[in-house]
């Protein structure tokens, strides 16, 4: 079971730096909070701090909100218009649904019988919608003979 965090805001956009932006990435969160206990992010929700009830799409900003990295907003990707008259990122915050980094919450690794001593895990990624509170679905693998 994943547990939703409170809203997290570890980065503030610098409006005077065209190469800056707002970076609520997992890397930045762990830098600021080394004891953050999130083993795996299952889902993510992103919102603008000053406009919490508006979808990011309605704000007119180009923002990446992804379960693999967190939130990335680059000032250089913004255009004049939208909710603010300047081409800079708003200040965003994220909430993530985490599998806690505790032994009782982690999935038991599956083992396969091979001639090697370790098995390589396979991972897949799903790009979620820009802002969501519903769980993401897991892709179904299909076999197609060639």
From TrEMBL:
InterPro entries the UniProt entry points to: CILP1/CILP2 (IPR039675), WxxW_domain (IPR025155)
Pfam families: Mucin2_WxxW
Positions of region (Disordered): 107-146
Annotated localization: Secreted
Compositionally skewed regions (Low complexity) per UniProt: 107-140
Ranges where the WxxW domain occurs: 4-98
Keyword Transmembrane: no
Keywords: Glycoprotein, Secreted, Signal
Entry GO terms, CC: extracellular region
Name under which the protein is recorded: MUC2 protein
Organism: Emberiza fucata
Taxonomy of the source species: Eukaryota, Metazoa, Chordata, Craniata, Vertebrata
């Amino acid at each position: 079971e994943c547990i939703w965090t409170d809203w997290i805001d570890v980065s503030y956009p610098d409006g005077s730096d065209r190469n800056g932006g707002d970076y609520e990435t997992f890397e930045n969160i762990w830098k600021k909070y080394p004891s953050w206990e999130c083993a795996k992010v299952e889902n993510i929700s992103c919102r603008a701090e000053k406009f919490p009830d508006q979808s990011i799409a309605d704000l007119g900003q180009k923002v990446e909100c992804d379960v693999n990295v967190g939130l990335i907003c680059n000032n250089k990707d913004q255009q004049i218009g939208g909710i603010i008259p300047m081409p800079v990122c708003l200040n965003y915050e994220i909430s993530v649904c985490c599998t806690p980094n505790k032994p009782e919450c982690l999935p038991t690794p599956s083992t396969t019988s091979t001639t090697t001593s370790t098995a390589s895990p396979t991972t897949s990624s799903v790009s979620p919608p820009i802002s969501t509170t519903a769980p993401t679905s897991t892709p179904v693998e299909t076999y197609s003979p060639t």
